[in-house]
Amino acid sequence: MHFTILGMPVQDGSGRMGCEMGPSALRTARLALALRELGHTLTDLGTVVPREARPAVHGNTSLKCLPEIVAWTTAITEAAYHAADGAVPIFLGGDHSIAAGTLAGMARRAFEAKRPLFVLWLDAHPDFHTLDSTNSGNLHGVPLAYASGQAGFQGFFPRLAVPVDPENICAMGIRSVDRAEREALRHAGVTVHDMRAIDEMGIAPLLRTFLERVSAENGMLHVSFDVDFLDPSIAPAVGTTVPGGATFREAHLVMEMLHDSHLVTSLDLVELNPFLDERGRTATLMVDLTASLMGRSIMDRPTRSY
Fold it and tell me: For position 241, what pLDDT does the model report?
């Protein structure tokens, strides 16, 4: 396969500094080498530069960095669309606000290919707030709502060329949901598998059901992988830790199942904050998981000491 890699060093959405170093950390952890060792080719497209931020005043006074996130989303949407030209793009975050743009760009690609876009959202949080409903004001909590065409973004965020159908979204690993998000998710029809569902039924059957639907509808699949999908005991380099996340084995199983499906057409790697890491262990794990998604088998696990 041919991949493009595109850095998106956004930290304005998280309310905490450090995520802008995420793309550099993933490159330093030898993401490109891991893909080449699997026989793939790739082109590193460098780093997205945001558009000029323009003043924006919203009635929700808790919003943080709204002009900056709008400027980033505008630039990322266009960059993501072009990165998918003849390649599978890997978008290196940055906080999860980048998904507002990556999803918008990939939805446009899918529409032009006359295929539905499906989204596998691997995250502790659904990020389904609107500009009106968020209390924290941190805009890494809104991208899935924006990209799926929920109300409340008009006049501030870029107009969506093609929204993602909320019924084509599967959020897995969820374990921190605000009341407003819970109601919005239910009303929109997003499939949500929280950690209780995973504990009770196992992650494989839940994921398999979703992948079977993507395949049956000839869908394109965008995977948005937040570090806090993982349990913080194995992935400490994230500013939004929530205990009880996916284990090392569950995460690798998800990635190997995704590889076996041959459905993934784009990937986000987000919320890596190297400032909070321990000798690069989270960045290295993210690269290893990406390698599993792209074809590394369980027989090929490297041995490491820390």
Answer: 85
The rounded distance, in Å, linking the Cα atoms of 223 and 258 is 9
**Overall pTM > 0.90:** yes
What's the confidence (pLDDT) of residue 15?
84
Annotated catalytic sites, by residue? 96, 123, 125, 127, 140, 226, 228, 271
Which CATH superfamily groups domain 2-300? Ureohydrolase domain (3.40.800.10)
Q: In sequence order, what are the residues at sequence separation of 6 or more whose Cβ sits closer than 8 angstroms to the Cβ of residue 35?
A: 3, 42, 290, 291, 294
Three-class HEC string of 132-195: CCCCCCCHHHCHHHHHCCCCCCCCCCCCCCCCCCHHHEEEEEECCCCHHHHHHHHHHCCEEEEH
Q: In a 10 Å sphere around its CB, with 0-12 CB exposed, 13-18 middle and 19+ buried, how is residue 298 labelled?
A: exposed
Cβ atoms 129, 180 nearer than 8 A:
yes
pLDDT, tens digit (0-9, with 9 covering 90-100), for 193-240: 999 999 999 999 999 999 999 999 999 999 999 999 999 999 999 988
CB 78 within 8 A of CB 105: yes
List Cβ neighbours of 108 (8 Å cut-off, separation of 6 or more): 77, 81, 161, 162
Structure tokens at 211: 């992948």
Query: What phi and psi values does residue 246 have, to the nearest 5 degrees?
Result: -65, 145
SS3 253: helix
Calpha distance 109→198 (Å, rounded): 32
Residue pair 140/14 in contact (Cβ under 8 Å)? The answer is: yes
Alpha-carbon span 119 to 151, nearest angstrom: 19
Which two three-digit tokens encode residue 47?
Answer: 């780093």
- 268 forms bridges with which residues in the sheet? 91, 224
| Whole-angstrom distance, CA of residue 193 vs CA of residue 120 | 11
